[in-house]
Amino acid sequence: MLAAIAHSAETGDGYKMRLRLIRADGEERAVLTQARAERDDAGVVKVLYGVFQDITDQQAQIARAQRDEARYRLLAENVGDVITRVRPDGTSKYISPAIESLLGWTTEEMNGRPMDYVHPDDREMVTRAVLGTIHTKEPCRLDHRALHRDGSIVWVECTFRALAAEAGKPSEVVVVIRDMTDRKILADELVTARDRAEAAAAAKSEFLANMSHELRTPLTSVIGFSNLLKASEALPEAEKGYVARIATASEALLSVINDVLDYSKLEAGMIELEPQRFNPAALAHETVQMMEAQCLAKGLALHVDLAPDLPDRLMGDQARLRQVLLNLLGNAVKFTSQGSVSLSVGGALEANGAWRLTAEVTDTGIGMSPQTQAHLFERFSQADRSTTRLYGGTGLGLAISRRLARAMDGDIVVTSQPGLGSTFKVTVPLHIAEGGSEAEGPRLSVMPEGRVLIADDAPANRELISVILVGMGLEVATASDGAEAVHAVQSEVYDLVLMDMQMPVMDGLTATREIRRIEQGGGRRLPIIALSANVQPDQIQLCRDAGMDDHLAKPLQLPALVATLSKYLDKSNAPIAADATAPGRFATH
Known about the structure:
The protein has 17 helices and 20 strands. It is an alpha+beta fold and 589 residues long. The longest helix is centred in the middle third of the chain and has 50 residues, at 181-230.
């Protein structure tokens, strides 16, 4: 201070400097002092005028800002993401050094226009994001392509956040840029893998549909004609026995096909449960009755044991429960050469008011080792190859049964010892049904009149169905492909069409769409029933989407056929008895 005063007195120059003052209480304060000299007429300095300004707080704020800036710059320059500040015109005064690892350019080499490094096709999108963020003050995120120094494309994820504009300065947006090339590649690979999986699933579904069609179509004739022969009074007893063996073998083959298709549906999650009221005691007796012939043929005793407190009516999917019990009883009979097979049905009331139904199937058969039990419910599982050769089967029955039980929130467990038989225990939680009666099947009625067109490319199937329908008193005409069916509908009047799906020249779906097109504006809708070996849910939906009214699966079942024809042809309620001597009886399994 003294030196500055002396210099001013000698030269007449003023001064400005930063100094420290010590207050009376000992606190040190920073000050800014400045002065100017005043001269007399001779030019000699005679007085100095000066001021002191306390800048302690100002300096502390500047120091803090400098420290903060240093920390932020250190963070920005060492973080893996690129950080830049962009003005509305696309220019930038700062970009972090991470840009070199991202795009190969150093900050010194870049031209201050980040948009130049955005892929040309994405620049407009990025510009809109910058201007939109400035306008709305809301942050946004955007994925786009950037250009590497070597010409390659780099996918980046950008987050835009607006900065508060300072007076007299343009608004800016802070952009955080993250390399997402690997993530984009992974996402593309996942999409590709998904597309491949969907294509594989579609191919599997198509294969199953084709397999179902190719196998079920000839089975329709085999089962249908063998049952017609069994009902014939003119056939000698010995030949009836041969025909019965054909029918039994063909139904066994159909069972294998159904197992494969059922498991496929379960895997795809396409099995839908249909709860309805049913009598569990009646279900048990009906299921056991279906196994009586097999037990009688092997000399096995068959027992049913019902708990005294079993409810009269429960609410559940009776058909699926029957399927599970039939699978278990069928296995028990198959693996038991002497002794007995029994079904015990009971359960207990749970705290939530539900009835936990318990069904146990016990046999005196060959039993199983713990090693066999460990893999018992796996698909295609059999005890060993000799078991498959000796007893047959696909190894899917138990896998299907457990999946069905679990679909109903239940399960199946097994206890067994080699040579001492096995016990399979099914537990399923069901609701007790109050009042009402179990669901009744559709009433079957006689068709007094009606004209039916059968469109099927298999001559044997056309002949079989014609024999059955003529036996019911219906008039029948046939077509060997969809084009013939469309021509027939245009030429003659029919009351109903049974339409196969897979036919040459024109398939059943195309033919149905063409018939529906022809009908437009006519005021009459001809009932078209899909007659198909394709029984997958997606295939049935295709039929409905094409304009078909209903679906009948091959091999045909007489009750389903008659019920469907009754629904669309006849309004009377006269019942028809599908007994063993009826001339049109076939495939009633």
